[in-house]
């Protein structure tokens, strides 16, 4: 949970500090006011990069060469200070946790597990298998980090070496055979972890989906990346000529996927746009519920422009699920009325109005206790 967030030179946000609710946080205002930039800053704090672009230049304010995000995280033992800084001139990255430099972004991600729901997220079903692999591996990483991450690095190294040998035509020596063995060992272990995770996720997903919409005959199947009836060694051996011709490995955990179907047909081919969005929301929420169940911890949800993606009944159902999960959530929208009636009376909601560089914390009419209104200013360039 983020207790305090300080943003410096993220897009049009020159300097801002806010203390969010441990539950629901709504940022509303006109497009371009900086709402999504707050979510982007939280994402940088959690994984050291933006969810909107792979480049750092658009993220940093045009009058600066460095952007910084600082957060204070609430933990059982107190609070943990985290700072992430990106430099445009040399594209360097600095991460500090409790005053110490941190070199690994994977360790940073463990401290602040994030789930993003935005318009791009809905490509999860329609996009490439890589998006669905990333979805699977988010869950495995956060619930089986000590097992999964070293295996994933081993597999990537073996795959890189094998592909290099294939590209250079070195397929007859013992070196390829040794990397095949290493690749298969890591692949089988990764497949086991992924399969166990998906088996746990599916019943949670089915329950969440039933609370959002009624879709009969929708199923999720995990494809490991090679023929389930044969060992990976057999598949690699039989496919060596094709691999050598193309210069890369066609089979393995790097080809894993989730296959989501309605009966025998791909769900993408038969579901409406709105239904696909609900399925993706259910997948993301199911991960949040399962993470809480397996780790006794909570992830943070970043939800960008929720009302534009869902109609009123489904918007209400989704917000109720966030409250049921009791996770910290940040939601952006244009008009606060779009989310004004979505909260239970006991839910602590902070609504920040973003307008011309000003962010004011509104009172929540449904809140039973009276809180002092706070405000903060975000300077424009």
TrEMBL record:
Of the GO CC terms on this record, one is: cytoplasm
The Swiss-Prot or TrEMBL record annotates one GO molecular function as: ATP binding
Q: PROSITE patterns, alphabetically?
A: RECF_1, RECF_2
Which is one Pfam family of this protein? SMC_N
Compartment(s) where it occurs, according to its Swiss-Prot or TrEMBL record: Cytoplasm
- Keyword terms: ATP-binding, Cytoplasm, DNA damage, DNA repair, DNA replication, DNA-binding, Nucleotide-binding, SOS response
Q: What does this protein do?
A: The RecF protein is involved in DNA metabolism; it is required for DNA replication and normal SOS inducibility. RecF binds preferentially to single-stranded, linear DNA. It also seems to bind ATP.
Protein's name according to its UniProt entry: DNA replication and repair protein RecF
Phylogenetic placement of the source organism: Bacteria, Pseudomonadati, Pseudomonadota, Gammaproteobacteria, Oceanospirillales
What gene is behind this protein?
recF
